[in-house]
Amino acid sequence: xxxxxxxxxxxxxxxxxxxxxxxxxxxxxxxxxxxxxxxxxxxxxxxxxxxxxxxxxxxxxxxxxxxxxxxxxxxxxxxxxxxxxxxxxxxxxxxxxxxxxxxxxxxxxxxxxxxxxxxxxxxxxxxxxxxxxxxxxxxxxxxxxxxxxxxxxxxxxxxxxxxxxxxxxxxxxxxxxxx
Length: 179
Description:
The protein is mainly β. The protein folds into three domains: 11-83, Complement Module, domain 1 (Ribbon), CATH 2.10.70; 87-126, Laminin (Ribbon); 129-173, Laminin. Helices cover 8% and strands 37% of the residues. The protein is built from two helices and 14 strands, in the order αββββββββββββββα. The strands form six sheets. A four-stranded antiparallel beta sheet has the order 1-2-4-5, with no helix packed on it. β11 (140-144) and β12 form a beta hairpin. The longest helix is centred in the C-terminal third of the chain and has 8 residues, at 166-173.
């Protein structure tokens, strides 16, 4: 039996002591595995340290390692390699909704439907759909945050963007207006 702390690890004899499981691949990274002593648990732990390939960098430089415990690799935050020139990868490029890379160190922000890009080209403000052609509504248009809805005056019922009057509804139902 080996004394754990006087035992000099090598990949061959540690593989005999522990079942080795390969570390997971991280896109655009190379991995180096080694065994480290965990004195608290009094055993060796397999550690995978990731380094990003050329043109990529770690999203968080403090998160470079995964640890194998009970045949499962894990960490609080997994290493992640992002393109060095993709500004959208960091805080969404400062864009409120969408960030689209536009080449080396360039990007463009855009907004979800119902919003317009503000003058700072990053934040999104509510679009007033009712301001143009009454939003397509026949009678009343009400703007809401990120959307709108159509409404009809008393005596009319909504149908899509149109309003159907009471007399038209009666005709559609086959009810005679004359009595």
